């Protein structure tokens, strides 16, 4: 059994709840424990993962968030930089699954957050599990 930390940016409560449900279900189905922390937005997720990993308390991480395009360039920053930050941590050997939705509108987010539809929360959890297993095998 491994211990995962779910780091969620609760920008859209109902959508976040759906992502969280899918991620927790996937981790539990694989026999792993999980805890959840909340950060203000997707931009804060990579730093939260880095800080949590310094504690040595967790084996892997699942990043959950919803980024919906608005009127300005900020969407590109939030979507791109949160993904880049997670990728950098992943390249350092930290087992992470990226479940940050980057979508045009709430309808697209709903389909992807829903565990009964695209279940991106569960998908991110399964990716984190797979990367931890890979790291363990290659260690
Ligand atoms: N617009 C969205 C944000 N924006 C907030 C940023 O993530 C960040 O918290 C802020 O810029 C302060 O550093 N965050 C989301 O998760 N989703 C959005 O749609
Ligand atoms: C992704 C965002 O930061 C976005 O929701 C902000 O909206 P806006 O670009 O209209 O300020």
UniProtKB/TrEMBL annotation:
Catalysis: reaction(s): (2S)-2-hydroxy-3-oxobutyl phosphate + 5-amino-6-(D-ribitylamino)uracil = 6,7-dimethyl-8-(1-D-ribityl)lumazine + phosphate + 2 H2O + H(+)
Per the record, the coiled-coil ranges are none
Q: What class of enzyme is it?
A: transferase
Write down the superkingdom of origin: Bacteria
Q: Which GO terms describe its molecular function?
A: 6,7-dimethyl-8-ribityllumazine synthase activity
Where in the sequence is the active site?
A: 74
Q: Where does (2S)-2-hydroxy-3-oxobutyl phosphate bind?
A: 71-72, 112
What are the UniProt keywords, alphabetically? Answer: Riboflavin biosynthesis, Transferase
EC number(s) of the enzyme?
Answer: 2.5.1.78
Keyword set includes Transcription: no
Pathway info: Cofactor biosynthesis; riboflavin biosynthesis; riboflavin from 2-hydroxy-3-oxobutyl phosphate and 5-amino-6-(D-ribitylamino)uracil: step 1/2
**Gene3D superfamilies noted in UniProt:** Lumazine/riboflavin synthase (3.40.50.960)
What is its biological role? Catalyzes the formation of 6,7-dimethyl-8-ribityllumazine by condensation of 5-amino-6-(D-ribitylamino)uracil with 3,4-dihydroxy-2-butanone 4-phosphate. This is the penultimate step in the biosynthesis of riboflavin.
NCBIfam families cross-referenced by the UniProt entry: lumazine-synth
Give the protein family. Belongs to the DMRL synthase family.
This one is known as: 6,7-dimethyl-8-ribityllumazine synthase
Q: What is the lineage of its organism?
A: Bacteria, Pseudomonadati, Pseudomonadota, Alphaproteobacteria, Sphingomonadales
